[in-house]
Every structure is written in C-alpha cells, then in structure tokens.
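Re: the request from the purification team.
They wanted to know what the chain is likely to look like in 3D before they choose a buffer screen. I agreed to run a prediction and write the result into the notebook, where they can find it.
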Amino acid sequence: MSGPYSAALRCAAGCEGAYAVDTVIYHCPLCGNLLEVVHDFGALRDRSAAEWKALFDSRYKRTSWPYGSSVWGKKEWVAPTIRDENVVSMDEGGTNLFWAERFGADVGLDDLWVKQCGNSHTGSFKDLGMTVLVSAVKQMIADGRSVRAVGCASTGDTSAALAAYAAAAGIPAIVVLPRGKVTAAQLVQPRANGAQVLALDTDFDGCMAIIQRLAVEEGLYLANSMNSLRLEGQKTVAIEIVQQFDWDVPDVVVIPGGNLGNVSAVHAGFEMMRDLGLTSRVPRLVVAQAEAANPLYRASRNGWRFEPMAARATHASAIQIGNPVSIRKAIRALERCDGLVEQASETELADAASRGDRTGMYNCPHTGVALAAVIKLAARGEIGRGQRVVVLSTASALKFTGFKVASASNDPIELPNDYDAVRRTLDTLVPA
C-alpha cells in the first residue's frame, strides 16, 4: 500500500487541475500540453534526507519483492499507489556505472563514466519506464477497468520493453514500427514476446501519429513517453547514478536525444533529490543528437524556437525523430540547468563508438552520438578536464550488429593450421 504517499497528473505548463494517475489522459484538456506526475512533497518530507538514503541503500539489489529492482526500490518516489501484487518487474536498473578511464584520458577528461543502461532485461533504458506503466495497467485491470490492449510506436527499444512486460502481465500488446527501419535484432524481440507488430510504410513520426489516433479512437492504452508514467520509472536512473557515487552529484550528464522524454525524466530525478534535501545541486545536462535528426539542436541555436523537421536516415535509428513529443519538457529542463545541445555526424558517431570500443566498451550508435558530443565539448573546453561526466548508454550494442560489423576495422586473419605461420603473424602484430 502507498501509506501516506500519493501522486497525481498535472499539466506540465502549469494549468489548473489534477487527475488520478490511473486516468487515461495524456494531454492537458485546457491547453493541450503534456502532463507530468507530481508527488506530494509534504508527505515525502516525513522522512529526512538521511532516512531516504538509508532506505534506498538497504533495498538496493536485494531480494525483498519488489524492492530489488532499482526502480521499485524507490517506489514511494515513483508510483506509491501501485500495490505490490500488481508490480511487473524484471529486476530492472542496478546497471553498471563504468569508469571510462582510458577513453576519458584519450579525449582529455579525468573523470568520465558511462552508465550502461543497456544491461537490462530487454537491453535498453526503456525497461525503467515500462515496468511502471505496465504495472499501472495491471492494477487498472485488477480494479475492474477495461483495457483493450497496450500500444506504442517505436524505433525498436520501446517495442521490446512493452512486449516483454506486457507478456509477463498477460496484457495484449500492439506495436507500430516503421517498416525496414528497425534492426533484425530489435524486430525479433516484440515478436518473440508475442506482441502484434504492424510495420508501416512511414517513419517514426508517422507511426506516432497513427498510435496517438488509435489511443483516442480505438481504446489502446498508450505506452510511449507521452504517457507520464513511463517517465517516472526513467527518472530513477538519475537517482541511481547519485546513489552509485555515494550520493554525490556529477557535474555533467550527457543523454542521447530522440523523442526527448528521457531528458526531462533524468532532470526530474535530479531535481527531486535536491528538493527533498538528498543533494544540493542539479548537474548540467547535455543532449546529444544525430545531425540527421536534430530538431532540438536547431532550436537551441534559434532561441529555443522549435520547428519540426523531416528526420533523415542515421545509424542512430532509435533517435531518428524529427517531431519529438516531449520537446517542450526537454527545453524546460535544459533552461533550468543551463543545459547544452550538441550534434554528431554519421562519421563522428561511428568513430566515437569505435574509439570507445577499443577501451573496453561495446557501444550502440546512440551512445556513439553521446560520446561524439563529449569529444567535441571537451575539445572546446565546454566540459572541463576535472569535471565528473556521466554518459547515458541507452541500449545494448548487441541489437546493432550491422552497425558494429560495418565499423569494425580488424578483420580476422585467415591462416593455415600451421604453428609457424601463426607465430610469424603474432610477431608482426605484437613484436616481442
């Protein structure tokens, strides 16, 4: 049970009105802006900052249901009214915070870290949000609400997370994808979990328009980041990063940006810790976009005036989005933390991913975009050598084998089954 804690949906632009979190509503009925989850901070202050830290630390990666999940270990700050029996969890969160020592030294940074969000059940950070959304739907059904199906538009990772969590909950899932623009490894994930996949002759923005109409006219429950419940789970990555640094806040956090829900979610996590006294500041956020799909970057160069664009093809297919639904929330977050936006060309993102791989990482193209942004900002002095910088790696590179094969330069050396031939080759590769 939630005990004294509660949350409600409110307009992100500040309009009057509050809505229960199980209300099927995504936009403010007064102004049309997206909604956000607002917690009762007065109730949350019944525990001191030290008590919240101790509680979260006592649950971290433990086995008491459902708190072993790094999302549900912070349940009171995320979804306090979800009953434990309705939680659908795959032990999400708790992912490696990798000290990128060699890569950092190579680009002029002493304290660079990569948060490996792809080390999750379906291989991306989307699990953090989907566990909350699907748990909420399961509770709606348990309380007698009729939910026809849960649906999403996706460039790959959202569909995988939705399909897996919906399958675990026994809820029908409908996935709308742009045909031919999702890797085979990503496409097989929702199929394996039994989701119904609709491949449309359009891009992600076209799929998003279709799924929004289906949500309004056909009763699908929307699972994209327009749904504020998704972002409540995703904000926990900020809390977890600080927790992994023994409750110390990094200076800069770099986030690959597509539909931009993750930008506002991460910022909300940092703000919540500060406002409840666990920390004293919020880091500077950097959003990294592919040059082929860079509407936020363009807006940042134009006084934050946003214009949708037709996104072009990019290796970073999950962020190939020209009309992001969370653009206003992202701009608000960046304005509050003096944030930056940087872009990366296809060559820059591929080169950055490869440079990172050669220091022990295995980077998806979207992480390559973020690493390329780090390289450029460090070279210009906009990130200082001594600053603590965290890059969000959003997905497992195992989903992007084609990209990895194309960017690999060290092809296997074919040799006869002959020791001397192997020895001579070794001498040329690694002189004694």
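For the purification team: The chain has a mean pLDDT of 95.
Please add any questions underneath this entry.
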